[in-house]
């Protein structure tokens, strides 16, 4: 305990809410129908656990849930989803027998604050019950970033105009153990205490069962602390014992636990904050992105990854998509390389599933699951009943093969940025080789003497079972070349390990050379005359529909036009060729980048949340800062707009990663060359400056970008 | 506590009788007596009343007949104010008036009624009616959810299926906080649609309790009125329930008017 904490009043919390509007999300009052959205937006986590921000006392639209990364429940059906754990936040109270709730009496003040800077969910509530008793409550919840197994809930209660009896029913007490459908044992140990303003304990931590009643006096403050420790059989052979021991320690030092958590978040922000001058909304949106990205990552567990909605909701069943490798990973590579390493290692540990999928479909190497959970097996549901009653077959699990190149791309970018030799030798090279091997078997040589990839779905999922998708072929070509490059690199620098690896993989000397041949002769759809890539064979012959006529839409184009019409049109769901331009920027001449953006951008319906940010990024790089800013704003509103109902199932972590990339690679114009990082900024018109930190090959770089140019300082220190 | 009732205005025309089979089923469902209200210029002799209303004596079982004189809509509304009925069930119009959606009486009753109004097209005739499928168009706003409570209660009492229809069109989404409209982004339909459907129903249910109702959600796109009519026909709907914000003059109530114009089944109008 430090001096500041020693000076605290017994019921004082050791931290105060952040007041700077750039660091907080605030919800004033209460709108019942928004609860699911708020539970997602205000969710808090540490990459090991994630909890939705449900009201402690519940409501008619509360869906409290705490998720544990990598803990799935296969009993829910053939497609596994996140296991539901006990609701440790549940807390109901009465004041002199009358329930304390938003649907009882009046809320004189009610305010919830997501304190992104400190990683704390705050709630301030001044409640008047039916008997005119006014109670002031302050609540905090957090998932410790300093000790990922610990969860904290504190409540201070101050009767403003009465003496009376408070009864608290903290439903979850003691140590609970559950076994999920997939066989994981989850142990959750709970301890609580209540102290009065003189520091006297009301009851004891051992009094864990049932309701706790105590007398309160006008003007005095009482504080409830509830500490939770979570372990699973994924962590230890004795999860119950570990959880019990940990919670006993934690309840003795609640203030220290909170302070250490806050310090851990401050350190995280020191490494990753992105400061914008001149645009408060953009600043808040970027911090929101960084907050949720950071909340979803755990550098200590390389057998889990980040699902499409992180640990903030049940949507997407916790499944991992290309969102992680292409949209989220760059943030971690440059600001949290330890977490990035865990994410790419997850792809290494799920290689057996990828190999099995490739073999099942008749290919060699590794074809990653379009939707991956704990084992790496394909988890994509085979069909869905759409709300218009149509049974729609889902082909992405069978045909969206670019995922393998996306994984390889992420692996290579991690290696380039970190120079993590041990990773490359022990894991990365194997992924790059096995994915290259897949593409070499996936491409077929046809009568025209070229290799083709047929029957595929690209990022534009409106068009299924197409041939030679430009993005897929472009990334496959890159993957084949990098696969060959890594074999040379390994043979040259780590000959001993390389011999063992190539022997284990059964890699013959001529195989990498064949990869290069396939890459050279792979059809790309590029037209030298126009400088355009045809998104897939036959795309240019499809119906052109002017999207400007649908500018006011609030629904995606495939809903407005119907699936069949959209398949026959040039309208695309999301950045596809534009995505290729972004990822392979340095390989394409400037006029090709521009020509393709100008052609495909007006034809993109942005039916995916991943799309606007990439358009912002590419527009900024092309120097069209105004258009980039419009897309950036659209991307930033995906979760934060008031009526984004599809945030109810969790925040869009991939889109948040895209938003961060739009700021860093787009507006800040960060590029990596052989000489190292450099900036060619194109700041949004309303941004006066952008400053950031990032790590490149073990060194931290600090950058401040005024509109007139870049200032950079390189340090070897930790941030 | 007075007996629950359903008010059934009959003007003595053949068309007006279309309301009766509907009112009878609703009365059984709501455990409410039918209160037939006839408004004329003068009170007919008792012996002529049934003939005036084109009713046979058995039609009056478990019914009360009240005869009033004066302006029809005003008297019906006065009667409604006195007996506080659960519903008013009446024919949309008893004389064809080109270009008009409702007759004058029905229009005035609808605009000022203190309770939900069920409007029955005259073409429905005296055929038997049942209540198995209720279609509820929903714009995704909490206001509409709140307005639909009587319809949900009715459907539950009738053990009918509640089909919640959301029609999306090009245009701005409702600004009301807590509204849920068609998602702007469908990243992966296999996850997004089940989640959206579930969320939509939960948002309705948190404001308008759905009890043990069998609820189905359906999404359509296009002109709202045309789509609601299409869905109602496709789903063999017995009753369409519309939440109405109470404004009748152009340009308001365009969807309600269009549906009433095309109506072939009873339409329940609730005040939002």
What secondary-structure arrangement, pairings included, does this model have?
The complex is a heterodimer of chains A (719) and B (272).
Chain A: H1 3-6, E1 24-28, H2 35-41, E2 44-45, E3 49-51, E4 66-68, E5 72-73, E6 81-82, E7 92-95, E8 98-99, E9 106-115, E10 120-128, E11 134-143, E12 150-159, E13 164-169, E14 174-179, E15 185-195, E16 211-216, E17 222-232, H3 239-252, H4 254-272, E18 274-277, H5 280-296, H6 322-335, H7 337-349, H8 351-360, E19 383-385, E20 391-393, H9 396-399, H10 402-418, H11 421-442, E21 444-445, E22 451-452, H12 470-493, H13 495-505, H14 510-521, E23 526-527, E24 532-533, H15 557-561, H16 563-567, H17 577-583, H18 590-600, H19 611-621, H20 625-640, H21 653-667, E25 670-673, E26 676-679, E27 689-696, E28 699-706, E29 711-715
Antiparallel strand pairs in A: 1-9, 2-3, 3-4, 5-6, 7-8, 7-13, 9-10, 10-11, 11-12, 12-17, 13-16, 14-15, 15-17, 18-27, 19-20, 21-22, 23-24, 25-26, 27-28, 28-29
Chain B: E1 5-9, H1 19-30, E2 33-40, H2 46-53, E3 63-69, H3 72-83, E4 87-91, H4 104-112, E5 117-120, E6 133-137, H5 142-147, H6 149-157, E7 161-168, H7 189-207, E8 214-221, H8 224-234, E9 239-244, H9 254-262, E10 267-271
Parallel strand pairs in B: 1-2, 1-4, 2-3, 4-5, 6-7, 6-9, 7-8, 9-10
Antiparallel strand pairs in B: 5-10
Helix pairs in contact in B: 3-4, 8-9
């Amino acid at each position: 305990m430090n001096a500041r904490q020693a000076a605290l009043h017994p019921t004082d919390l050791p931290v105060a809410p952040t007041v700077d509007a750039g660091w907080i999300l605030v919800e004033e009052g209460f709108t019942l129908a928004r609860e699911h959205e708020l539970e997602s937006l205000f969710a808090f986590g540490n990459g090991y656990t994630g909890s939705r921000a449900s009201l402690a006392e519940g409501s008619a639209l509360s869906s409290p849930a705490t998720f544990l990364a990598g803990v799935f429940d296969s009993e829910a059906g053939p497609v596994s989803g996140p296991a539901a754990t006990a609701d440790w936040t549940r807390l109901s109270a009465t004041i002199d027998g009358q329930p304390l709730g938003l649907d009882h009496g009046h809320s004189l003040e009610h305010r919830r604050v997501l304190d992104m800077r400190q990683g704390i969910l705050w709630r301030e509530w001044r409640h008047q019950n039916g008997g005119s008793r006014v109670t002031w409550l302050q609540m905090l919840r957090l998932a410790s970033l300093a000790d990922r197994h610990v969860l904290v809930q504190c409540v201070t209660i101050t009767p403003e105009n009465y003496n009376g009896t408070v009864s608290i029913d903290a439903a979850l007490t003691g140590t609970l153990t559950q076994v999920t459908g997939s066989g994981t044992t989850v142990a959750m140990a709970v301890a609580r205490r209540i102290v009065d303003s003189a520091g006297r304990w009301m009851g004891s931590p051992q009094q864990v069962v049932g309701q706790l009643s105590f007398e309160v006096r006008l003007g005095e403050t009482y504080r409830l602390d509830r500490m939770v420790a979570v372990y699973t059989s994924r962590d230890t052979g004795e999860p119950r014992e570990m959880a019990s021991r940990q919670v006993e320690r934690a309840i003795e030092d609640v203030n220290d636990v909170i302070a250490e958590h806050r310090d851990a978040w401050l350190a995280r922000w020191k490494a990753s904050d992105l400061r914008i001058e001149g645009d408060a909304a953009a600043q808040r949106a970027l911090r929101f992105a960084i907050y949720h990205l950071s909340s979803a990552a755990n550098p200590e567990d390389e057998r889990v990854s980040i699902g499409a909605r992180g640990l903030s909701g049940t949507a997407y069943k916790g499944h991992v998509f290309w969102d992680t490798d292409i949209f989220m990973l760059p943030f971690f590579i440059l600001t949290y390389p330890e977490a990035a390493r865990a994410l790419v290692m997850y792809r290494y540990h799920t290689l057996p599933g990828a190999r099995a999928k490739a073999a099942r479909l008749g290919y060699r190497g590794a074809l990653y699951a379009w939707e991956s959970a704990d084992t790496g097996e394909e988890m994509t549901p085979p069909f869905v009943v759409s709300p218009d009653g149509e049974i729609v077959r889902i082909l992405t699990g069978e045909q969206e093969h670019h995922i393998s190149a996306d994984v390889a791309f992420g692996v290579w970018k991690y290696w380039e940025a970190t120079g993590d030799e041990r990773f490359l030798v022990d894991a990365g090279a194997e992924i790059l080789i096995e994915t290259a091997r897949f593409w070499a078997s996936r491409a077929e040589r046809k009568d025209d003497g070229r290799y083709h990839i047929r029957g595929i779905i690209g990022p534009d999922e409106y068009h299924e079972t197409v041939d030679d998708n430009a993005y897929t072929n472009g990334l496959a070509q890159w993957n084949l070349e990098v696969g060959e490059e890594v074999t040379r690199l390994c043979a040259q620098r780590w000959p001993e390990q390389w011999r063992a690896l190539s022997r284990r993989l059964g890699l013959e000397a001529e195989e990498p050379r064949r990869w290069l041949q396939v890459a050279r002769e792979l059809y790309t759809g590029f037209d030298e005359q126009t400088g355009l890539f045809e998104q897939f064979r036959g795309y240019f012959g499809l119906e052109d529909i002017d999207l400007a006529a649908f500018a006011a839409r609030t629904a995606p184009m495939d809903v407005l036009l119907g699936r069949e019409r959209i398949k026959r049109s040039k309208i695309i769901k999301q950045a596809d060729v534009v995505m290729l331009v972004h990822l392979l920027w340095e390989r394409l001449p400037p006029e090709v980048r521009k020509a393709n953006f100008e052609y495909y951008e007006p034809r993109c319906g942005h039916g995916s949340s991943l799309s606007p940010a990439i358009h912002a990024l590419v527009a900024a790089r092309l120097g069209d800062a105004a258009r980039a800013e419009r897309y950036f704003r659209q991307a930033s509103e995906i979760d934060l707009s008031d009526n984004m109902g599809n945030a109810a199932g969790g925040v869009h972590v991939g889109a948040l990663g895209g938003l961060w990339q739009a700021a860093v690679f787009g507006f800040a114009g960060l590029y990596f060359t052989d000489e190292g990082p450099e900036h060619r900024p194109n700041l949004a018109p309303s941004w006066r400056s952008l400053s950031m930190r990032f790590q490149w090959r073990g060194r931290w770089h600090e950058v401040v970008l005024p509109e007139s140019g870049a200032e950079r300082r390189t340090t070897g220190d930790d941030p | 506590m007075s007996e629950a009732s359903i008010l059934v205005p009959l003007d003595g025309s053949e068309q007006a009788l279309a309301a009766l089979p509907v009112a009878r089923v609703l009365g059984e469902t709501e455990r409410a007596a039918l209160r037939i209200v006839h408004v004329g210029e003068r009170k007919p002799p008792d012996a002529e009343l049934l003939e005036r209303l084109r009713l046979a004596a058995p039609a009056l079982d478990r019914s009360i007949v009240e005869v009033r004189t004066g302006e029809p809509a005003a008297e019906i509304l006065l009667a409604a104010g006195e007996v506080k009925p659960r519903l008013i069930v009446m024919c949309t119009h008893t004389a064809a008036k080109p270009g008009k959606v409702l007759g004058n009486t029905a229009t005035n009753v609808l605009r000022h009624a203190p309770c939900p109004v069920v409007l029955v097209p005259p073409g429905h005739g005296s055929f038997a009616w049942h209540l198995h499928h209720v279609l509820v168009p929903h714009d995704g706003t909490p206001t509409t959810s709140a307005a639909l409570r009587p319809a949900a209660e009715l459907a539950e009492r009738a053990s009918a299926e509640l089909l919640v229809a959301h029609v999306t069109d090009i245009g701005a989404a409702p600004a009301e906080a807590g509204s849920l409209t068609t998602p702007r982004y469908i990243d992966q339909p296999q996850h997004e649609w089940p989640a959206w459907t579930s969320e939509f129903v939960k948002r309705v249910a948190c404001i308008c309790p759905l009890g043990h109702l069998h609820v189905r959600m359906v999404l359509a796109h296009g002109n709202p009125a045309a789509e609601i009519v299409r869905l109602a026909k496709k789903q063999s709907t017995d009753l369409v329930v519309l939440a109405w914000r109470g404004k009748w003059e152009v340009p308001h109530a365009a969807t309600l008017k269009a549906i009433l114009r095309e109506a072939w089944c009873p339409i329940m109008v609730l005040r939002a």
